[in-house]
Amino acid sequence: MMTPHGSSTGPEQAGYEFRLLGPLEMLVDGHPRPLGRAPARALLACLLLEPNQVVPMDRLIDTLWEHDPPASARTMIQGYVSRLRRLFADSAPDGPEIITRSPGYLLQVDSDRIDVHRARALINHAHELEPAERSRVLAEALALWRGPVLADIAHSRLYRMVAPSLEELRLLALEERVAADLELGRHHQLVLELSTLVDRHPLRERLTGQLMLASYRAGHRAEAQARYHALRHRLSTELGIDPGPELRELYEQLLRDDPALRFPQPRPEPAAKRPIPAELPPVPAGFVGRHRELAALDRMLAERERGSSLLAVVTGTAGVGKSALAVTWAHRVEQHFPDGQLYASLRGFDPEREPLTPGEVLTSMLKTLGVAADAIPVELDDRTALYRSLLAKRRVLVLLDDARDSDQVRPLLPGSSESLVLVTSRRRLDGLVVRSGARVLPLETLPTEAAIELLDRAGVPGKSASEPAAAAELAQLCGGLPLALRIAAARLAANPARCVSDLVDELTDEQNRLHALDIDDADTSVRRAFDISYRNLHAVHADTFRRLGLVPGHTFTAHAVAALCDTDPPSAQRRLRALALAHLVTEPEPGRFGMHDLLRVYARNLVAASGADRDSDALRRLLHHYLATADHARRFLRPAQDDLDFSGLTSVRRPRIADRAQALEWFDAEWPNLVAAVRVANAEGMHDLAWQLARLQFNYLMVRCPWEDWIRIYTDGLDSARTVDSPAGQVLMTAGLGVAYSRSGQLDEALAHYDESYRVAVLTGDPARLAMTQINMGSVLFRLKRYEEAKERCQDALRVYRSLGDRYFVAGALNNLALVEQVNGELEEALAHLREAEALYRDADDLDTLAMVLNNCGEVSIELGRIDDGERFHHEALDAALKCGSAMRQASAYLGLGDAARSRGDLEVARTRWETALAIYEAEGSPLVTGVRDRLRDLTERVGRRGV
């Protein structure tokens, strides 16, 4: 590990140096060397950010050209690499070297000669030092920033990925240096510096707190309090929040002249910057044998070379103990991975459920790594890039259980060689061997001696020794499969007085089971072993367990099981507790239950074998539970915009949902189950329920915008609506798909679905449905800049809704018509229609749409030159968006507030507000990011011209 030196490598030093903390530069003996055009510079920056590590060609292409690379992209990169190699050879013969190493390139370089890595090393080293030396080292690190990072490639994707984190690093280092200076009693010198910093970063609470403390110690008590009130007002006005608890506590200390403020306090322990995941499942009890395989994994860890891939695949048949081996070894070596352990069950060979997609796994892992749900990128490539960025330079163990194929695993591989990935699969995954250098470890069944040891450890200690012959026979009947052995051992442990030979006789009496426990058919072996436990359940519990095989999702609550079993929730809760005691269900969190995947498969096989009509009735009851609860919950999010009403399902006992927060909490928790429920309703031919259940998710979808699931369930819903020839279903499903595609920027797809919705509505002759489709068509035609067609559609819809007296949909038509009028320059007419729509949405208490209309009012007002009115409308929109939780509406409000600030000439405020809007749009995957970036670029150019 590098120890930071006392002085930075600068122009006076001989040799070479790379600089990214400013315009990208390569200095040789203090003199810059030409680096070529922007693409070559971006390529070099990619390699410099990950020195001595392989950067894949695919990532280089994606970084340089995003989603539209030229056909010759690989050839062009090879050309850039050749020119950089010549530059290095001519400028610094003993310096950096670009090495071709599959699947890309590796820059072999002394990382201490790269300012980014030198700065990080200095900042990390400073935490261990006393205040005076800490201040000096942090000042040295801060001196490495020469302006905006990578300023000469500011329009590249690389800049957008890297610049925010490096700016945050600089600010953190700055705050730490100020903290050290405060400990040293340098408050008089800090007041002026901090005043400038707070003006530049007005929402950064720690800087404000440091200025308050410095001012107080310097005798400026009134100034210290004024700074607090200024920040509180700004936070309330712009974000609708109050200062954090630390700043509030500091303010209270100021008010009471707390003596503790007068002298520097002992330095607190630094808080962890990032969460350290510890997701490994518990170590399997009674793990035995596998000495050869454990030793092979140990050798792989010990023999790793710098820059080589640390990837192993444990393969073998189902039930052979792949997961047990992987989890056991992972726990044994977890001390080698101080930055944490990530775990995911990929469900690659679940016969009933689809494998997890890489996108779903990445979403879960990013949340574990501290990324907020609304900040997770939409595109898979962006999620992968963020995941790899978070794991860069971190030593993490990633355990991926039950993978289906190489394609499922490859996006989940960290880019850093510091981490290790352990995969289990029934397949060899040769693609990972060829492309990623994986090492394959085949796993066989346990030999008899180890199998008997497992029976003894997992069952009653000493029982096998008392009946060695019977124990050997039982091990053979279980086929050496650890899962079957563990189940047999649990049977013995449940009744310690029972003889091993009794269990052998039970298995032997079942003629089918002799074949079922053969290792040639591992799935059947496990199923028959489960059958022993199932038949010993109380009849009520056995019936409940079998019906759990009907649950489409992965988890279930007592309310859901009550519907499934036609009972009340307390009774369902008692049944689930009994099954949990028998280890047939688990309770991963209070009140929410699940099942091991193999047990789920077994339960579903029982359902298939029964062939009873009551199972169909049970599934329908469960779907009714989801329908009634979703219908109830959605009405807290926004008004229902259809005729669906399931409040009459009095047999359903819904969980308590009394407000918007509880409704969102229920949808969030049940969302995977709701998606699965729509899909199974479609697959099981319950088409009348499938499309209606999909529709009931619309209000939640509008708030959370999970694009992939939205399109998935509405596609199934549309298939069901077509199958039962439901015009209402077809109109609503195609309209919902249109909204999903429109909001994600796929306008042609949106228009196609809206057009189908319109054509079906025409056939129904229902004027309300037809008008709704007209509004939808108008909105997408407007975005496609087909303004006259859009205006005609909106006017037609408005006439129909006025004639029907439907105030809510009149508001929607007025809003869309106003947008067209705005583009046509009819601003007064547009504002009048928007104000009418605003009043109607206030009456309907639809906060999400009200926020949209208020933002539109603000935009038109600013165009009319009424800046104060525009700013007021946008502030009202922000308040409404914060109350309803709509990130997209919040972003629109910040965008409009920035426009108002620009119109007043307050360019720094405009920049702050636009940057906030941009961050939200980027997190939501919105196509509106382009317009915000254009504003920011124009602002930068305008400020630059002023400077000149």
Automatic annotation (TrEMBL):
Keywords noted in UniProt: Coiled coil, DNA-binding, Transcription, Transcription regulation
Family designation: Belongs to the AfsR/DnrI/RedD regulatory family.
OmpR/PhoB-type domain boundaries: 8-109
Gene3D superfamilies the record matches: P-loop containing nucleotide triphosphate hydrolases, Tetratricopeptide repeat domain, Winged helix-like DNA-binding domain superfamily/Winged helix DNA-binding domain
Protein name listed in UniProt: BTAD domain-containing putative transcriptional regulator
Annotated region of DNA binding: 8-109
Coiled-coil intervals: 784-847
One of the Pfam families matching this protein, by short name: Trans_reg_C
CDD domains: BTAD
Domain of life: Bacteria
Top-level taxonomy: Bacteria, Bacillati, Actinomycetota, Actinomycetes, Pseudonocardiales
Presence of keyword Coiled coil: yes
Transcription regulation in keyword set: yes
